[in-house]
Amino acid sequence: MNTEFLHDTPEDIARAASLLHDGELVAFPTETVYGLGADARREDSVRAVFAAKGRPADNPLIVHIAETEQIYDIASEVPDLALRLAEAFWPGPLTMVLPKRDCIPLVTSGGLETVGIRMPKHPVARALIRESGCPIAAPSANRSGKPSPTTARHVMDDMDGRIAAVLDGGLCEVGVESTVICFDDPKTIHILRPGLISREDLAPYAARVYVDKAIFEQVAPDTKVASPGMKYKHYSPDAKILPVDAPDFEAFSHYVRNHAVFGTYCLLFDADPEVEGIPSMRYGDSGAEQAHYLFLRFRELDEAGAKLVYVRMPRHDGADLSVYNRLMRAAGFEVISL
Ligand code: TXA
Ligand code: MG
Questions:
Q1: Using 50, 70 and 90 to split pLDDT, how confident is the model at 319?
Q2: What is the pLDDT of residues 35-52, one digit of tens each?
Q3: Ligand 1 contact via 92 beta carbon (within 6 Å)
Q4: Could you give the CA distance from residue 193 to residue 133 in angstroms, rounded to a whole number?
């Protein structure tokens, strides 16, 4: 298959919309990461998404909508709390898991009776959903296990020849995937995957916000988890990623210089000096900057030929929890603690 490379123009968005309408797969930009889209109602198209990614069939897809009202087409029950959150955070990087309607096949929901729903903020994504007339099922547009793509070129690196088209919308602003939540009861929000929208952001709307423990620790492959995506190793570049929890830069630098092998790189904060003799890349200082750059740097480290990457440990409160979670999962939860 020859993958079309489309641009952010009305003609190209119309072309992408018509491909989706015809059941084809199209990768498109969102504010978080690029998604690999298909008509969420068509079993054949959704099966093709799983095949193109090499994704396990029990890992459900998120359904993307362009207007809040479409939530009623996808979910069979919408609690008041979900509506209040939609009003506060949509369009934006929040996915809500709700009971699904029959129009969403079990292939899309990974066999579950629930479905994750999100209204993205990126104007190209919303135009595409509107013009195609489809609710769009879209996982991140990487091959399963790879870092999520934040540029159209990174999508092409993984998907060229496997999908009908890629729609280029520039570099994604947020850089890590949406916050995924479900509701344990009408007043309790349960965070299944951390993202830019943090526990602190959600707290004013609910009596309780519970953060799933799979965010902090490795889950055994055969465990039953609230969100199937949590049990798979994820987001990892080919290079081995090793976060180093050091009291300061000096301790980090000392450790790395004494444990460098062929192909060693460091991933540093912007404010850090160089680690003498070791090539480095940087991923920002604040949580928002680190989220924006983390996956981009993972892919650049592979392109540079890195084999082992010592990473400065991000903070893990607020929005920074999303960066910590992606890093820990890329590292298979192995950390050097000094
Ligand atoms: O920002 C994002 O969410 C991006 C863009 C493209 O929208 N999408 C994305 O999709 O990250 P994906 O498939 O890579 O991750 C979806 C996550 C998985 O961890 C999955 O297990 C969880 O959402 N999920 C989806 N539907 C669910 C459901 N019904 N119940 C529990 N977890 C669900
Ligand atoms: Mg993904």
A1: low
A2: 999 999 999 999 999 999
A3: no
A4: 28
The residue assigned the tokens 């399963």 is 144
63 CA to centre of ligand 1 in angstroms: 9
* Other CB atoms within 10 Å distance of the CB of residue 160: 14
Eight-state DSSP code of residue 178: P
Domain annotation covers residue 220: no
| CB of residue 116 inside a 6 A radius of ligand 1 | yes
Atom of ligand 1 nearest to the CA of 195: 1
Q: How many residues does the chain have?
A: 338
Tell me if 233 is assigned to some domain: no
Residues 58 and 146 in one domain: yes
How far, in Å, CA of 170 to CA of 45, rounded?
Answer: 26
Q: Are residues 184 and 97 in the same domain?
A: yes
The predicted-structure confidence for 172-191, as pLDDT tens digits, reads as follows 999 999 999 999 999 999 99
166 with 261, same domain? no
Instruction: Specify the pTM.
Output: 0.95
Determine the atom of ligand 1 nearest the C-alpha atom of 193.
19
